[in-house]
Amino acid sequence: MSKARQLAKGQPCMIGIAGTCNGDPETTVFARYPMDVYFDIEMSSDDELGAWACSACNAVLVRRPPILEEFFLQLRLFHAEGVLRTQHAIREMDR
Ligand SMILES: [Zn+2]
């Protein structure tokens, strides 16, 4: 199990969708970034590629289309940036 997944519970939400995020670290889960869905790339270690997401943000992320394509791309960006913030937070813990 990756460190990102192991440490998820109790961490701040790294997605932060305005008007959606509940900001409650107790609901935080590891939200895997689905490279296989978005890019048809199988990742052997995709357990590491994910973001800490509160239950509310995660619910939006896992809701697949049908939604407007424009919003879908925006969600992908939120998710990808969440992955970067999560990895940054983990690196900071190790310092
Ligand atoms: Zn959130």
From TrEMBL:
InterPro entries xref list: YbcO (IPR010774)
Protein name: Uncharacterized protein
